Amino acid sequence: MGAETIRCKAAVAWEAGEPLSIEEVEVMPPQKGEVRIRLMATGVCHTDAFTLSGEDPEGVFPAILGHEGAGVVESVGEGVTGLVVGDHVIPLYTPECGECKFCLSGKTNLCQKIRATQGKGLMPDGSTRFSINGKPIYHYMGTSTFSEYTVLPEISLAKINLEAPLEEVCLLGCGVTTGMGAVINTAKVEAGSTVAIFGLGGIGLSAIIGAKMAGAERIIGIDINENKFELAKKLGATECINPKNYEQPIQEVIVDLTDGGVDYSFECIGNVDVMRSALECCHKGWGESVIIGVAGAGQEISTRPFQLVTGRVWRGTAFGGVKGRSELPDYVERYLAGEFKLDDFITHTMPLEKINEAFDLMHKGKSIRSVIHY
Ligand code: NAD
Ligand code: AHE
Ligand code: ZN
Ligand code: ZN
């Protein structure tokens, strides 16, 4: 007999700008090529707050947000060959089908197989697996981890080591992989480099870890909240600066501090003015700036083209350029081998019922990551 519909708790975003509401939802069985998982933990990333704010052009409501989870396979649909009940998995908002033009290019992690439906809050067949009293509730980023159970296509799940603590490795579902991957995979920072990291939240701090692993000699952390500096230094920042303490634009301050600019910079905030500073603090001739932060609908970046003509490079990255199914399990292995820690990031844990506190803590600058334990 096939799996039944499950009734469980989920945090529902009914509309933009409103707190999440804990509801009993119906979660349909997985259909062909799909898997239903029991979430064990999920982090709360700034992108969840971004979409909830109404700034995300792809935001649809009502939806179940959340994209930084880890869980256990509860049931599998017809045709699923790579996963069985009981496997431990991390949901992937960037799937890996292995057969689309993007996957076959070998040049990007941005698999596009299901991107169109995913961006509309739908499963690949154009419908949803969540409902409340029969009314459909949208998915989010193809993951919807703010629910005790969720359904994903098989191509959106990374199978990981059973030994990994799910309440920590959930952070590899977005923040930590994104920051580390941006430095190691996207920018390919070399030993001895000078690096500037703008924004010392979960993403920026992970970029610091990546920069230290890469052997960067100087790692400059930049934030307007000086409470972030202590952890940034513990993780590897060699100096931290607050733009508010200077009269000059922060890019000029950094150029002066670094004999002409940094080799690499990373914008981990989602502020288009800071993106400009991050580009313009790069060294003439070779400095590269990587945009990680997600900016709101209608916002645009600008700089004088001369900045690029004179050799600076501007680029961006999603999920740190990491291919979820083929590469993420190795991040878990490296974590298990002690190459980096995750507990430093987890400033708060709470049950799903208190998820709105996680958003409050983030907005007040008091948390790095809140992790929901199911
Ligand atoms: P966060 O809220 O934890 O951290 C943001 C940090 O930026 C905070 O420490 C805040 O004090 C600092 N900040 C805010 N304004 C600033 C300013 N003007 N100058 C200097 N510092 C400033 O957020 P997070 O979870 O680390 O996410 C950071 C960004 O990365 C968000 O935009 C998020 O949507 C994005 N993100 C992108 C990807 C991707 O794949 N590209 C993945 C995850 C998150
Ligand atoms: N929906 C937004 C864009 C949001 C966005 O850029 N998301 C990142 C991941 S943020 C994770 O915290 C991403 O992966 N982007 C690539 C993609 O295909 O969405 C908008 O502006 O429309
Ligand atoms: Zn995220
Ligand atoms: Zn693909």
UniProtKB/TrEMBL annotation:
Keyword set, alphabetical order = Metal-binding, NAD, Oxidoreductase, Zinc
- The lineage's top-level taxon is Bacteria
The record's Pfam families line, in alphabetical order, gives: ADH_N (PF08240), ADH_zinc_N (PF00107)
Instruction: Please verify whether the record's keywords include NAD.
Output: yes
EC assignment: the record states 1.1.1.284
Using the record, list the residue span of the signal peptide; answer none if the entry has no such feature: none
This chain's function reads:
Has high formaldehyde dehydrogenase activity in the presence of glutathione and catalyzes the oxidation of normal alcohols in a reaction that is not GSH-dependent. In addition, hemithiolacetals other than those formed from GSH, including omega-thiol fatty acids, also are substrates. Also acts as a S-nitroso-glutathione reductase by catalyzing the NADH-dependent reduction of S-nitrosoglutathione.
Which family is annotated?
A: Belongs to the zinc-containing alcohol dehydrogenase family. Class-III subfamily.
PANTHER family the record matches = ALCOHOL DEHYDROGENASE, ALCOHOL DEHYDROGENASE CLASS-3
- What is the designated name of this protein? S-(hydroxymethyl)glutathione dehydrogenase
State the species of origin: Microbulbifer echini
